[in-house]
Amino acid sequence: MGSLSSRVLRRRVAPPRGEGADGDRGSRGGKRKRCGSEGPGESDSDGDGEREERLLNTPRRKKLKSTSKYIYQTLFLNGENSDIKICALGEEWNLHKIYLCQSGYFSSMFSGSWRESSMDIIELEIPDQNIDVEALQVAFGSLYRDDVLIKPSRVVALLAAACMLQLDGLIQQCGETMKETINVKTVCGYYNSAGTYGLDSVKKKCLEWLLNNLMTHQSVELFKELSINLMKQLISSSNLFVMQVEMDVYTALKKWMFLQLVPSWNGPLKQLLAEADAWFSKRRKDFEDDIAFLESEQGRAFLTVFKHLRLQYIISDLASASIIERDSLVPSEWLSSVYKLQWFAMLRAEQDNDIGPQEINKEELEGNSMRCGRKLAKDGDYCWRWTGFNFGFDLLVTYTNRYIIFKRNTLNQPCSGSVSLQPQRNIAFRLRLASFDSSGKLICSRTTGYQILTLEKDQEQVVMNLDSRLLIFPLYICCNFLYTSPEKKTESDGLLDNQEN
């Protein structure tokens, strides 16, 4: 490689053609005068000095860039001095072993005892359907140049080619391109490709994007592309950015399941729920009364996803409980067990003086906390509560003057449901804020982490003081709450869990 580059470099630094060729300015036919010895009016020497000055002041970066272009054009595109021909997918490339050895694939092929090491023509088998001729052209070309322009629409095919050829630098560049261009159209394809080709950092970035955008920026196109396994990961996560309450997660799943079963539907998002409800309503008439849709042949594949719904926070609201009973998507046994658990939790809070979590149990918080959220479209003053029965803890949330405040409401304002009058109540929580750009990319975020807050009657507490730089609206707020202490398991309960596992 060094000898080829040296030859090219020597060609580039030669004096430009045309200088000295007209007989008036060049040194041909006579000796040059030394710099500084010429007197006034000696223009030939002035021209030599100017040329030399221009050459000395030519930016080195410009020379190297020109050399790189020359190598790419002459050796790769034109195939000059080629010593090996690569054939694949019906195309041929006249290349150079010394450049191909930058590839781990070809380096091992040429340096070992493989029969290809002495061959001038090599036929490549391409087992990966993602690889096409254009991807191979860019991958081979990357061996002859420093910079490769990667189009997002081509990055998966190029990544596949780079992985086959073991081009670590190109693989890394594909990964960076994918991270920078994640959006609603690319995220699922990128996620699947990152899993196939071992780009864990890209896969993690895609999952983060989906957790942030699945509920905040719902999309018909995205619902269609999300696989069952990927949706299961999202719905089970405590990091899912939920807007409003858990019932909205159920509603999103209903839309998603409808689109998985009827992928030809192409209406707008605002009509999707009505279409889904009408479709499932027709299917209910085909089943016996005691069979839920998820127990049917069509619905059985989606059982694993719906199992990760936190039903205890859906049945805590009468309107939501009525809808989920009417839909008959979820097996009645699931609901019966949740009703029972929530009834005992309420009795503990009312009669056993359960004042709430005493310590941070991260596993419990991540697996069983209430997920809820709110979108603040613009700056201003806001005060709200999330619907549902929360075991006598009426929590008011206020946003004002860059502060977010929690207040335990007992007497000052009317509220629906019973209110606990215990002197103190604890609540475990995590508060997160986020702003996104038009592609769903996170602009800024902030979190309190998991905390336990103790509040007396009508006491309020500032839980976050916002820097004005974080206030990019619309602002999305997501909270995880745990109002009651985790139920202490008996030895028999533990045995039962082990049997189920």
Automatic annotation (TrEMBL):
Chain segments carrying region Disordered: 1-61
Keyword Isomerase: no
Principal location class: nucleus
SMART domains attached to this UniProt entry: BACK, BTB
Domain named BTB: residues: 82-152
Keywords for this protein: Developmental protein, Differentiation, Nucleus, Spermatogenesis
GO biological process: germ cell development; regulation of DNA-templated transcription; spermatogenesis
Biased composition (Acidic residues): 41-50
Record bears the keyword Disulfide bond: no
Localization per record: Nucleus matrix
GO cellular component: nuclear envelope; nuclear matrix
UniProt name for this protein: BTB domain-containing protein
Native source organism of the sequence: Chelonoidis abingdonii
Lineage: Eukaryota, Metazoa, Chordata, Craniata, Vertebrata
